[in-house]
């Protein structure tokens, strides 16, 4: 008698759930960048001559924060389309 | 604005340099370096494009009212995130592109910024080892 759930199906299901959970990492930088941009806009409104410094600092911070979201995206896509766990069966 | 331009050029130069070094290493140490080099090129180009788009988005966002700036910056972030996702998907699916090269290319911008902007002061490291009571 064939088992109800094969090992491969279980790995695929768990990988899909894992990919979904990994994508949560992509939301954080989006919220953070939006918050920073809002505060940056307030700062420029208060002190327009400091726009260059504000944008420069925000740009570097946002670029570093964005890579954190990319980590999650990489994990999700690898789990979905290049799953290394199936090869272990 | 001049400092902005200089910062962007420095970061772009750094990304190209670090990826070139990685490509040269892959030529010497790998049996089939071509997929890695194509991946590095693909990732580096996308990292530079993302960085430029980020600059354009933030430069526009700071001139908007704060609540609109929040929405604008977040929506632009998700557009860039989608593009990055497409790039990674293509590099996973394509046989002639190594995904590890693409990942390194995409993340290299982080190493460059940390190196050029955060860890560039020798005084900072010297202060770590300085005795407090002196």
Explain what you see:
The complex is a heterodimer of chains A (89) and B (134). With 89 residues, chain A is mainly alpha-helical. Chain A has three helices and no strands. In chain A, helix 1 (7-22) runs antiparallel to helix 3 (51-81). Chain A is rod-shaped, with a radius of gyration of 21 Å. Chain B is mainly α. Chain B is built from five helices and no strands. Chain B has helices spanning 2-29, 34-61, 66-93, 99-118, 122-128. The longest helix of chain B has 28 residues, at 2-29. The termini of chain B are far apart. At the A-B interface, helix 2 and helix 3 of A face helix 1, helix 2, helix 3 and helix 4 of B.
Tally of alpha and pi helices of chain B: 5
Q: What is the highest CATH level, the class of the domain at 27-82 in chain A?
A: Mainly Alpha
What is the terminal separation of chain A in angstroms?
20 Å
Radius of gyration of chain A, whole Å: 21 Å
The dominant shape of chain A is: rod-shaped
Based on secondary structure, the structural category of chain B is mainly alpha
Mean pLDDT of chain A: 90
Strand count of chain B: 0
How many β-strand stretches of chain A? 0
> How far apart, in Å, are the first and last alpha carbons of chain B?
41 Å
The structural class of chain A is mainly alpha
- From N to C, what is the helix and strand string of chain A? HHH
CATH architecture of the domain at 27-82 in chain A: Up-down Bundle
């Amino acid at each position: 008698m064939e088992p109800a759930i094969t090992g491969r199906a279980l790995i695929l299901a768990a990988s899909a759930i894992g990919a979904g959970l990994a994508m949560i990492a992509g939301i954080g930088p989006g919220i953070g960048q939006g918050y920073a941009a809002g505060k940056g806009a307030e700062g420029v409104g208060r002190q327009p001559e400091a726009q260059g410094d504000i944008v420069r600092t925000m740009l570097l911070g946002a670029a570093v924060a964005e890579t954190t979201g990319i980590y999650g995206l990489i994990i999700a896509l690898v789990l979905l389309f290049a799953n290394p766990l199936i090869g272990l069966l | 604005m001049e400092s902005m331009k200089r910062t962007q050029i420095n970061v772009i130069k750094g990304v190209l340099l670090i990826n070139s070094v990685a490509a040269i290493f892959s030529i010497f140490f790998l049996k089939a370096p071509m997929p890695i080099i194509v991946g590095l090129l693909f990732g580096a180009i996308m990292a530079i494009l993302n960085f430029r788009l980020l600059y354009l988005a933030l430069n526009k966002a700071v001139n908007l009212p704060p609540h609109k700036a929040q929405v604008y910056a977040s929506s632009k972030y998700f557009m860039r995130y989608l593009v990055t996702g497409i790039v990674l998907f293509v590099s996973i699916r394509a046989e002639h592109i190594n995904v590890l090269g693409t990942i390194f290319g995409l993340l290299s911008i982080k190493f460059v910024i940390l190196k050029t902007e955060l860890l560039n002061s020798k005084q900072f490291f010297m202060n770590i080892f300085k005795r407090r009571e002196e």
